[in-house]
Amino acid sequence: MRFEIPEEKKLVYEMVIPIRWGDMDAMGHVNNTVYFRYLETVRLEWLLRVRPPEESQDQGPVIVNAYCSFLRQLEYPGEILARHYVARPGRSSFETYVTLERCDAPGVGCAEGGAKVVWRDHRAQTSMPLPQWLRAIVS
Predict the structure, then answer these.
(1) pTM for the predicted model, two decimal places
(2) What is the pLDDT averaged over residues 69-80?
(3) What local confidence, expressed as pLDDT, does residue 3 receive?
(4) How far is CA 25 from CA 41, 69, 74, in A?
């Protein structure tokens, strides 16, 4: 299966993630829970790269919904190309979308998933408007 990315999704980051032996389950393929870890890894790596160092740690992202569609089994050994997209910014939230494919099979989708990210004031425990630097990226 080849991914068809809707125009509203904006590619913001790519990274390669190694498949580890310990990622597999007794059936000999990557356990379904590990796919969510891959999605988390690319989302956090992207955010760490774009977030200004002076940004307050009293605010940040929380995930309010996450999903993953499993298209092909992943198996050790190998590497995954993860592509991270953003879309639909709101007052305090935006959508993320990630595609996963093996590096040795370019363009062949193994999984796709994403999450709704809400920017939050951690002390007040409430949502807050997206910071301007983030809104500029996700818009």
Answers:
(1) 0.91
(2) 95
(3) 65
(4) 20, 18, 11
Residue 1 domain-assigned (yes or no): no
- Say if 98 falls within a structural domain: yes
CATH code of the domain containing 115: 3.10.129.10
Tally of domains within the chain: 1
Residue numbers of the domain that contains 40: 10-138
* 8 confidence band (pLDDT: 50, 70, 90): confident
What's the 3-state SS for 64-77?
A: EEEEEEECCCCCCC
Which residues contact residue 37 at a Cβ distance below 8 angstroms, ignoring those fewer than 6 apart?
none
12-40 burial, b for 16+ CB within 10 Å, e for fewer?
A: bbeeebebeeebbeeeebbeeebbbebbe
The C-alpha atoms of residue 109 and residue 120 are separated, in whole angstroms, by: 33
Mean pLDDT of 15-21: 97
